[in-house]
C-alpha cells in the first residue's frame, strides 16, 4: 500500500494484483518501487511497446537489433556503461525456446527474436542479470519481464 495526497489529506492507495495490460502493470510497479519515475535504462527496447498510453520512455535505450534507425545499437550482456551508474532498468528478454518443431514456429516472437535452445536461454538470462547487477547502483531497481510458462 502506498500513501497518496488527495485534497491535502494523506490516503492509502491500493493496487490491484491482476492487470489487463503491460502499461498499467509497469505504471504500478514504478509508483510502488521507483517513486513514480520512469526507469533509467531499457537495453532491450525492441519497438518500445511498453512506452505508450502516457508511459515515458527511459533516458537510455538500446537494442541488439534496432527496429528503427533512431534506436541505438547495444547488447544487454555488455553495456557500455560504468559500474553502478544506473538507478533503475527494465529487461524484456526473448522467452521462446525449443527445437523448431510444432506451432512455436508461428509465434510472433519466434519470428522476430528466433528460437533459443533451453541452454542458450538460460545463458542469456544469466548474462543479462549479471550485467544488470554490474551497472545498477546498490539497491537499484530491476524490472524483469518473462513468461510464466518458460
Largest sheet features: 2 strands, antiparallel
The percentage of residues in β strands lies in 15-25%
- Number of DSSP E strands: 6
Strand order of the largest sheet: 1-2
Low-pLDDT runs of 5+ residues are 5-11, 103-113
Look at the structure and give the mean pLDDT: 81
Overall spatial form: globular
In helices, the fraction of residues equals 10-25%
What is the tally of helical segments? 3
Protein structure class: alpha/beta
Q: Could you spell the SSE succession in H and E letters?
A: EEHEEEHHE
Rg on CA atoms, Å: 17 Å
Q: Could you tell me how far the N terminus lies from the C terminus, measured between alpha carbons in angstroms?
A: 30 Å
Amino acid at each position: 500500500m502506498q500513501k497518496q495526497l488527495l485534497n491535502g489529506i494523506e490516503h492509502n492507495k491500493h493496487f490491484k494484483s491482476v492487470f489487463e495490460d503491460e502499461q498499467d502493470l509497469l505504471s504500478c510497479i514504478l509508483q510502488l518501487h521507483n517513486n513514480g519515475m520512469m526507469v533509467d535504462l531499457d537495453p532491450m527496447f525492441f519497438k518500445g511497446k511498453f512506452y505508450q498510453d502516457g508511459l515515458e520512455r527511459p533516458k537510455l535505450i538500446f537494442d541488439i537489433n534496432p527496429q528503427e534507425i533512431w534506436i541505438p545499437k547495444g547488447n544487454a550482456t555488455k553495456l557500455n556503461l560504468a559500474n553502478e551508474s544506473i538507478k533503475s532498468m527494465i529487461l524484456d528478454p526473448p522467452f521462446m525456446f525449443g527445437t523448431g518443431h510444432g506451432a512455436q514456429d508461428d509465434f510472433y516472437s519466434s519470428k522476430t527474436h528466433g528460437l533459443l535452445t533451453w541452454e542458450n536461454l538460460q545463458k542469456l538470462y544469466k548474462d543479462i542479470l549479471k550485467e544488470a547487477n554490474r551497472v545498477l547502483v546498490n539497491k537499484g531497481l530491476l524490472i524483469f519481464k518473462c513468461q510464466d510458462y518458460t
